[in-house]
Amino acid sequence: MTVTAEQRDEGKRLDAFLHERLPEFSRSRLQAWIKEGRVLVGGMPGRASQLIRCPAVVSVEPGQPPPLRAEAEDLPLEILYEDDDVVAVNKAAGVVVHAGAGHSRGTLVNALLHHFGKLSSINGDLRPGIVHRLDRDTSGVLLVARTDKAHRMLARQFHDREVEKHYLALVSGHLREKEGRITSPITRDPVRRTRMTAKLGTGRTALTDYRVLEELAGASYLSVRIGTGRTHQIRVHLSSIGHPVVGDRLYGAPVSTLGRVFLHAERIAFVSPGSGKRVEIISPLARDLADYLKGLGPYSS
After folding, report:
1. Which residues on neighbouring strands pair with residue 180, listed in sequence order?
2. Which candidate in 85, 135, 137, 248 is catalytic?
3. Could you read off the pLDDT of 169-178 as tens digits, one per residue?
4. Is the pTM here over 0.85, yes or no?
5. Domains and their CATH numbers in the chain
6. Catalytic site includes residue 135
């Protein structure tokens, strides 16, 4: 496959550019092809972080799909919304969305395949139906595409930032500003590769809005809306302003009795691929998070 860069692509990372132009392939798969030397820029092997300089012609030789594939399993599944095109489920904390290294059983996708039989095929056998993801420890509402057409339409809405995504988070300490916006770009931490960072001033554009709902003893309960969907975005951004999410040891939170990160995908709004009408789906705060909130004493200044 050959893709020609346009002026609007100037300065984009090679892997991001390819993911925009070839959305039928996951970004991780494209990155693997780049690493294997299957992607040439102007006839020379490219790097995932390489910046596009116009004019540029990028050729891609697809490799074999990964051996992992989703397998239907009879697992619990809480459906919040369902039509012919889209399903919204309430993901429990601790559940992995799709199979990956070390996780081939017990995934949300496996449960979906058992219940619905067939989902969108755009992301292949490994991630059927998956348009966006939630971290393993994050609970709440997740959208799934049942058809390829619905998948493409939802993917466009996510890309154009037309999908509203609201979260509930509990963070350490009390914020000076009760409402705010964080716009620091996010990139992979060059020292600790399991982390992302917003402290280098480089990376992918990220937008996080927050509002304090309640101040509690040693913590603040927030409503968070994200305009982009970067890896660990909320966790990284809140940690970058000195208020890591409770339970998030990876990003500097103190030891907590909660047992997981206090982050819940509360609400998502999108335009239905079938009806064209706006749909809003709400997931009640997970029980373990609600119980933890009740156990915190009130804040006294």
Report:
1. 210
2. 135
3. 999 999 999 9
4. no
5. 2-60 (3.10.290.10), 65-159 (3.30.2350.10), 164-265 (3.30.2350.10)
6. yes
